[in-house]
Amino acid sequence: MAQVLEFKLPDLGEGLTEAEIVRWLVEVGDVVAIDQPVVEVETAKAMVEVPCPYGGVVTARFGEEGTELPVGAPLLTVAVGAPEGASGSAASPSSSSSPSSSGKGSGSGAESSGGSGNVLVGYGTGAPAARRRRIRPDRLDRAVAGAPVSGAPVVEAQVVEAPVAEVLVAEAPVSDGPVPVVSPLVRRLARQHDIDLRRLAGSGPDGLILRADVDRAIRTAEETAAATARAAQAPARSQAKPSTPSAAVAAAPNGVAAAAGAERIPLRGVRGAVADKLSRSRTEIPDATCWVDADATELMAVRAAMNAATGPSAGPKVSVLALLARICTAALARFPELNATVDTEAREIVRLPGVHLGFAAQTERGLVVPVVRDAHTRNAESIGAEIARLTELARTGKLSPAQLTGGTFTLNNYGVFGVDGSTPIINHPEAAMLGVGRIMPKPWVHQGELAVRQVVQLSLTFDHRVCDGGTAGGFLRYVADCVEQPAVLLRTL
Hints:
This protein is α+β, with helices and mostly antiparallel strands and 493 residues long. Helix content is 31%, strand content 23%. It is elongated and about 85 Å long.
């Protein structure tokens, strides 16, 4: 007998609680193999392809591209195994005249009933959950009839011709189970009109939410909005003027003026994670910023000489960011107070033994901070190679959550945007961040004379709980000295 199994969004690790559907890799009616990737999702840390632990026919997908789902919410359902009586009902000429096709069908059924080799959180190689509910097979037929599967006669008979009275499907817990909606059209309609399906009481069988229920909710919302608009346009009974900005703000929810045609963009995915982290940093960390201008002419000359080297001393090109990263690791060795974090519950400063250097990278998906592990053990060439590798992964959206976490200090090169200075927000729970502006020619007093030099502004934002201004100033001055006189670094090499 055919069995329909529900595959839920697994726990993707790193404390992530939700993910956004970026791209479906399968359609309803497709035949999927065990551990085949079925959907590409975007978490707050990275893009991930999610494999399905079941093999069979996709009978339903939950959520359109762009939909955000919590961990444990249904992703799709898969019909596993061949239905009873499939051999008797498969009396078509193709099936009766081709013994090999039946052999293939049985092989497919055997494969579909097998367990997954990958162990996802919440899934494994064991049997499916014991709790089940019964649904009518005509719902399964309607879900799959729109996308017939060619070349798979057994699966096709299972979906359309199988004389099975009822089909079993795994039931999710009520607390975190799916919204009782079958039609993707109903979900899309509700999403377009900002209707929360979890607040609707379905009028269909077993509480199923139908399109009529959503249409009714839309009409109710429109009538309420129209009544609110009429009330706002009516003459005010009080002496206050309704057209004043303060009155408009007071009448709007959360104190935000609802201007006509205003666009609302959900804070989710990478943008939502950045917003949460920066807000937490501003709330918890009493930060301060100090800055200094430095003459980077010598540093640029040293870099040019390194990259121009030929013969046995030649090597990969070294970027300015790699040299600044190496300067940071040397400065943190002198001022370890800044390579730390604060344990607020224990009221302790935790100084960290190694430097895991994060660097800010702007991508099409938003701002990410890849981490160079054990940067204190690397030279400029090694750091540069790792930065290049992580930057490429960031651009293609293939950074793993582990490559975006665990940093102890961040280097932020905002000079690539053509700006001179900034007061960056600390990457919580770190204690400091070095910001680097653009390097550009400016008038500068050099050896007692006015000259045009390559000048850069350096800024250090630090957690005032871990150190005082003297330590922060000493760190920044050492970095500036290394930029102005790269030979200073020779003492620590």
